[in-house]
Each structure stands twice: as structure tokens, then as C-alpha cells.
Amino acid sequence: MNNGLPEYGVCRLSIVPMRSSPSHKAEQISQLLFGDQYEVHEVSNDKLWLRIHIYYDQFEGWIDARQHHAISKEYYDYINRADFKITLDQTSTILYNKNPLMILMGSIIPISGSELFKMEEQFAFNGDSKSLGVKREADYLKAVALKYLNAPCQWGGKTLFGIDAAGFVQMTYKICGYRLGRTIGEQFRQGKPVADFADTLPGDIMFFGSSEHHPDHVGILLEPEKIIHVSGKVRIDYVNEEGILNMDTKIYTHSLKAIRRVLSE
Description:
The structure is a single chain. The protein is mainly β. Helices cover 13% and strands 36% of the residues. The protein is built from four helices and 21 strands. The strands form six sheets. It has a six-stranded antiparallel barrel. It has a four-stranded antiparallel beta sheet with strand order 1-4-5-6, with helices on one face. The protein is globular and about 55 Å long.
């Protein structure tokens, strides 16, 4: 299937773009951050591109084969079980095989409290981090979301240097220990519904669009009547039963369709 290439990999660069088809001209649909692991499902005919399947959110796309870092199935399975650390600093540096590498908030570093897996790679990290599996609640989630404030909108982006609406929600929740899908449609099917706007709580996920069943925008309720979302950039706006009211223009920009709760009350 893989023309002799290893079938498993892990991101060992700060960011790797994932594309909709095997071409640098193709649309970026998501990104890998340092520490994201994946399976290789297909190799392009010219052997320059790999179609990968991310373990964390089951998302698929194409990456440049030169940015692939092969790992054994044994190590891949270990990563899937391990409770590694997730970085909390907006930017930090990791020593990887004795060379410094800048990594971004939300990266996974292979350091855990469990027994050590024998790895050929060497890591050193002294930045701020937490265990990936430790769940945090609304106040912590709000603090994480605010770290992305003013990050520019970028389709397929997942970092403070460029992020899309679903990526922002996914990464904020990921840092807080909750696993969400990569797309608005997947996130719309997670958590439990909140029937009435009056019953909302900080941290609730709000969905917007022209269709009640197929929303095209998403954000996080920051506090009563305040939403943080991506519209040109990560920004804070007013929100009510009608939708999002832009704080600068005082114009409604998105119609509210649904609210879902992932955080435990």
C-alpha cells in the first residue's frame, strides 16, 4: 500500500500543512503540530505526497513526503496510549536531538509520568505544559481561548499565527483535555444540546449559519452575552438569541442556530 514507506508517522516540525490533494497549490484543510501522530494511507503516484489519517481527530489530508517522520507501529501504539504533555506557552522551544526547535501552543511533547518508552529521539523541555488527558473547566478554558485573541483567520489553521473557526474551538478544548472533531459539522454532533439561550454557561459552544442542521460558523461563549470566535481574526463580540453582534460595527454578522455543552457542569 505504501510503496515501501513506513505506515506510521509523527510530526517533528513546528507546523506541517495538510492539503486537500497532493499538490502545494491545493487548499490547506488542516495542519499537524509537533507531536501529532498519524497513519499513512496512500502514496501519490510521484511518491512526493502522503495521504495521512490523524489519530487524534480521524482527519485525513495530504502532506509533503519530505515532512514525514516515520515511526514504528510499536511506538505509534505507545503514543496512542500515553498521557503526554501538551504545551501551554504561545511559543516555546524544545531541544530535539540536541537541536532547538520552536513549537507552538497545543503541541504534544513525549514526556509523561508513566514508564519511559525506549526512544532513539531525545527531548528536553522546560516550558509550561499540562497532561493532555487532565480535564479543566470553564475558567481555565476561557484563559486558554484568550491566548488566541487577535490570531489571524487562516483556513485550515490551528495556531496563533493562523487559525480557522473550528480549529480554534478544537485546539482550545484539546488543551483543556477534551477531544473534539476538526470540522464544524463534527463538533455540532458532540456534547449535549442547550435548549435555551437563557440556560447557557461560559464554555458552551455556539453554532451559527443559515441552516439549523448544517451550521457554518462556531464560537465559544466567554461570559454572558460575550462570544470569542474567528471572524477575520480571533475576536470577542456580543451574542444573544439572534446571533453575533459585531462590537465595532454594531451589525449582526451570524445567526444563532444551536448551542451545545461539552464541559461538565
